[in-house]
Write a structure and sequence with these properties.
The chain has 2 domains: about 260 residues, Tandem AAA-ATPase domain (Rossmann fold), CATH 3.40.50.10810; about 260 residues, P-loop containing nucleotide triphosphate hydrolases (Rossmann fold), CATH 3.40.50. Strand 11 and strand 12 form a beta hairpin. By secondary structure, it is of the alpha/beta class. It starts with 6 loop residues before the first helix and ends in an 8-residue tail after the last helix. The relative contact order is 0.11.
Length: about 550
């Protein structure tokens, strides 16, 4: 049976054809990749004159070219002879580049070949290996579709666009993971090395991760540069800065909403599959006394840092990180032991705050013994390894995915989990949040949370593939009166900001826990948060 697009995927496909540059921000699990695979095949098969017409229409709409002096940037140059050009039996007339995180490269290759069965295996290639091997693949005239990381594109795109005038489309999968900062070298390389004639489609469910609007500027600039004119104008429109020049608040969300309405498409999970039954459960656990003795010494400084992280968009500080590590993996924690004259730590001592299983791990063991496949998400590698070790000792078959696990091994674990050969998958939400389809799982456990609403939504979305037959349980484990509540507040706060810019992004509401379970210091600081942000509603955490 031929592979067919669903009705809404077909609409996306038509939008992708009609727009020179476009953003698909549909929810995770709604099937963005098939539409892009069909776009790839369509553009490669249509006649050159038709391609030129598409390019001309697009460049006309997109004023203020980003690379007007680039050789071969005009649509007509597509027809100019090139020694590297290949036409297979008159069927394929152009080439396409896919960029994505390395973890998605194998998956996307399989999808492209599935949706385009007349493409040969050697015509769809991953750019990988040594530097010489990568360059050889990048300049191979027999390749029609290249699949590469953003780093590889930054390094080889100039040579590729010069060598192959028939590269007509770039598809960027999950660009929020690698094009977050407009001023980064990677982002600027992408902007400067991509000719105006080349079509671009972006696909990400989180164009404004953690509610940071500046992450969306690359889409605004590459799709319609006249909308904001410049990055400085974008920031002046949307950012309020404090006396330290840090962003303290994002404003004018409706201006960005207007752009997204006109230059993107978004199918929600509900629109694609109907209501998805799910429930978020919070389980409060007591903090082990051995951990608490050390934890309380870092608490006040760490909490103050979280305020800066959330409200001023800064990175995490040492003390807040230490608090989270104590809760996540108390079996092995480094704390400062020596300081310089300025009070900065210069030496660390490794402590073991707990020899046995933590209350959170004990609860995971209880849930795993029910016999159903489950996913456990954590933040730190040591945390993930500790959970996996405890599960393995109980005789459970465990898979582990985090940033230090090789890509090939991750793929094998993914296949084994889907086949039922693994009982529990223990993952980093940052690593396993994209590219995995685990719709057979009905229970997801968060041993810890990170600050990003995007990480939470993407992780949960691994189980939202098609129509669910059973209720999805999302269980969040937390210790009473600890930084766990602050991180949860940060996730909720960031989701509200993301929703303001993009109303199709949900506001993450966690079940309410009474405030009197917290210390007075915690209550006072949360009140300060709410006053600062002028939040009129009750805090939902």
């Amino acid at each position: 049976m031929a592979t067919m697009l669903k009705d809404k995927q077909l609409i996306t496909f038509q939008k992708l054809i009609a727009n020179h540059r476009f953003l698909d921000r549909s929810h995770a699990g709604t099937g963005k990749t098939p539409s892009q695979c069909c776009l790839t095949g369509y553009l490669m098969r249509i006649q050159p004159q038709q391609i030129i017409q598409l390019i001309q229409n697009g460049v006309t709409k997109t004023s203020t070219p980003t690379s007007s002096n680039y050789k071969g940037s005009k649509a007509e140059d597509f027809l100019k002879p090139t020694s590297a050009r290949i036409v297979t039996n008159g069927q394929f007339n152009c080439r396409v580049i896919w960029t994505q995180p390395s973890s998605l490269m194998n998956k996307n290759r399989k999808e492209i070949l599935k949706w385009n069965p007349d493409l040969g295996q050697d015509q769809v290639q991953l750019i990988k290996g040594t530097a010489n091997q990568k360059q050889k693949i990048a300049l191979d005239p027999n390749v029609l579709v290249w699949i590469m990381t953003a780093e590889a594109y930054a390094k080889y795109s100039g040579l590729m666009h010069k060598q192959f005038a028939d590269i007509v489309q770039i598809i960027c999968d999950e660009p929020h993971l690698y094009y977050r900062g407009w001023l980064s070298k990677r982002t600027q390389s992408f902007v400067q090395s991509t000719p105006d004639r080349v079509r671009i489609s972006f696909m990400t469910a989180t164009p404004t991760p953690r509610g940071k609007l500046q992450s969306a500027y690359i889409y605004c600039h590459m799709i319609q540069p006249d909308y904001y004119h410049s990055f400085d104008f974008f920031m002046a429109t949307h950012a309020i800065r404090d006396e330290y020049n840090s962003v303290s608040e994002w404003i004018n969300h409706e201006v960005l909403q207007k752009f997204l309405l006109h230059y993107s498409i978004c199918w929600t999970s509900k629109e694609m599959y109907g209501d998805v039954d799910e429930v978020i459960l919070r389980e409060l656990l007591p903090l082990d006394s051995n951990i608490e003795k050390v934890y309380r010494g870092f608490e006040q400084a760490g909490i103050a840092e979280i305020k800066d992280i959330v409200l001023e968009a800064k990175t995490g500080g040492t003390n807040s990180l230490r608090l989270r590590q104590m809760l996540a993996h108390p079996h092995r924690i480094n704390i400062p032991s020596e300081w310089d004259i300025k009070g900065k730590p210069t030496g660390y001592a490794e402590l073991c705050l707990l020899a046995g299983n933590t209350p959170k791990i004990e609860r995971i063991l209880e849930l795993a013994e029910e016999g159903e496949p489950i996913i456990v998400f954590g933040t730190f590698i040591q945390e993930i390894e500790a959970i996996a070790t405890a599960l393995s000792k109980k005789g459970l078959k465990v898979g582990v995915i985090h940033g230090e696990i090789p890509r090939g091994q991750r793929d094998r674990l993914d296949e084994a989990f889907q086949a039922g050969d693994i009982d529990v998958m223990v993952c980093s939400a940052a690593t396993a949040g994209v590219g995995y389809n685990w719709g057979h799982v009905n229970t997801v456990i968060f041993h810890s949370l990170n600050y990003g609403d995007d990480e939470f939504l993407q992780a949960v979305a691994r189980t939202k593939r098609g129509v669910r037959e059973h209720l999805l349980q999302i269980i969040i484990l937390e210790y009473e009166n600890t930084v766990d509540q602050y991180v949860m507040w940060a996730v909720h706060h960031n989701s509200k900001s993301s929703h303001s810019a993009n109303p199709t992004n949900p506001v993450i509401h966690f079940p309410k826990v009474e405030m009197d379970a917290m210390s007075m210091d915690l209550q006072n600081l949360l009140s300060e948060f709410m006053e600062y942000k002028e939040i009129g509603e009750k805090m939902i955490i």
